[in-house]
Amino acid sequence: MAPLGDNVVVSNVNLEKLLSMKGGKGEGSYANNSQAQALHARSMLHLLEESLDSVHLNSPEVPFVVVDLGCSCSNNSIYIVDVIIKHMIKRYESSDRWDQPPEFSAFFSDLPSNDFNTLFQLLPPLANYNGGSSMEECLASNGHRSYFAAGVPGSFYRRLFPARSIDVFHSAFSLHWLSQMPETVLDRRSTAYNKGRVFIHGAGESTASAYRKQFQTDLAAFLRARSIEMKRGGSMFLVCLGRTSVDPSDQGGAGLLFGTHFQDAWDDLVQEGLISSEKRDNFNIPVYAPSLQDFKEVVEADGSFTINKLEVFKGGSPLVVSRPDDATEVGRALANSCRSVSGVLVDAHIGDKLSEELFLRVERRATSHAKELLEQLQFFHIVASLSLA
């Protein structure tokens, strides 16, 4: 991909067309670098199932609809949808009101730039309903799915589905991505201009405040859209990167991922004369890890949803390595982790060649700090279970 103009990340439209986790199945792909997300999601399954226990069981004559928002392109989304549907089938089977469960439909949704091809290649084949086989037989036939699947491209900060059509919304590790960079952060004349940095971590007060405001505007838009689309009696389970600090410029784990070795690698390119300092300053990672308070304020001000559960959950490290004492493996894991989620934006901003150079430097720096990365790099997540007010 050729480098686009310096303002590539400023434009909301460009960001929406561009942003995606790294597709395909290569070393730097999201599919091969999302094991940590899988582990973190599994550690929260009890909270998800608790949220599903509150979902109203409608007549089996109407299909039960599940949506995964920000599905990306790895097995994680398919695994979670499977968990949700199997849990709901069990609830229908143990209910006295209905003889059998409904048919299930699952929508996998993400931005149009998402690698839906890779995701759909991972989908197991549909269980054969035609032969009059029961749902139990379908479930017992391992490696098959018991739901109809479809992809829905579009930004979840807008409407995506017909009114009152969805029973369960699930979204994990996506809502910390902003719909756009706050324009003041990239505007040289503004006090919020994030000079010398590529992320909010360690930034000044007005920069941090601009990021926070953007997050809250986005979350409010997200809630408004879902409040129209969700059926009465439905449930929404959300997980996003969070922070334990009151100070928004202390982004915790996200800060260590994007604010240290990644930041230093950009500075290396500037010092080596490979890019200008303006080129660096025009790039910012559109991620914001909210505090519990940031999140709660928006839900309460919006008023469409009741909070059933809202907590900070310790997710653990994003680095999954087989040999923790091998510094090279740790360095590569950090660089790949960084690249799988931000590589597409970096490629578009400085081109493939310089992007390669940047991540080589991230890897080199992370390798020399492997021990402290393993000790200090911890992610916290905001976990929210919401139902219509």
TrEMBL record:
- Gene Ontology molecular function: metal ion binding; methyltransferase activity
Q: The organism sits in which domain of life?
A: Eukaryota
Gene3D superfamilies for the chain: Methyltransferase, alpha-helical capping domain, Vaccinia Virus protein VP39
The protein's UniProt keywords, in alphabetical order, are: Magnesium, Metal-binding, Methyltransferase, Transferase
According to the record, the signal peptide region is: none
Checking Pfam families in the record gives: Methyltransf_7
User: Could you give a single Gene Ontology term from the biological process aspect?
Assistant: methylation
InterPro entries per the UniProt record, alphabetical: MeTrfase_7, MeTrfase_capping, SAM-dependent_MTases_sf
Q: What is this protein called?
A: Indole-3-acetate O-methyltransferase 1
Q: Which organism is it from?
A: Herrania umbratica
